[in-house]
Amino acid sequence: MRTILASALLLAAAFFTTNANALDSSNTPVVVTPLASKTTTASGQPITLPQKNVEVQVSSYQIAQGATLPVHKHPFPRYAYVEQGTLKVTNVETGAANTYKAGDFIIEMIGQWHQATNIGADPVKLLVIDQVEQGARNTILKQ
Fold first, then answer.
1. Rounded distance, CA 55 to CA 5, Å?
2. What's this model's pTM, rounded to 2 decimal places?
């Protein structure tokens, strides 16, 4: 499975580096804009994938203006693309915080307690991608 994932990542990298016209057979231009390339999480941890039966889960989140998510952590990698709004994510263990706005890509911290607050005037809309062991949940709420 890791070989398949590595091959998929190499193929994706090849698409990002090839001529855009090569992606479309009708000679209509295709514009590819890389959004992120990271090897570490928001808190500087190396990104490590689940070791068996990887499942990719894709979700859409909408966080109301002024809302604060409960303190939680993720045992597996989670990625988010901010489609709208402004989100402040705070590591409650260290106090370090990052602010993300529309167009930003978030590589969430793994296994560290954190929470997020919509600090903008609009709802926050996120496209979230989780990589978990098949059947696992990727959010643990602090009791």
1. 11
2. 0.77
Amino acid identity of residue 57, one-letter, is Q
Q: Which amino acid is at 14?
A: A
pLDDT tens-digit profile, the chain (143 residues): 444 444 344 334 444 444 444 555 677 888 888 888 889 999 999 988 888 899 999 999 999 999 999 999 999 999 999 999 999 999 999 999 999 999 999 999 999 999 999 999 999 999 999 999 998 999 999 98
Q: Are strands 97-101 and 86-91 parallel, antiparallel or unpaired?
A: antiparallel
Q: What b-and-e string marks burial along 98-126, b requiring 16 or more CB atoms within 10 Å of the CB?
A: bebeeeeebbbbbebbbbbbbebeebbbb
Q: Rounded distance, CA 73 to CA 139, Å?
A: 6
Amino acid letter for position 139: T
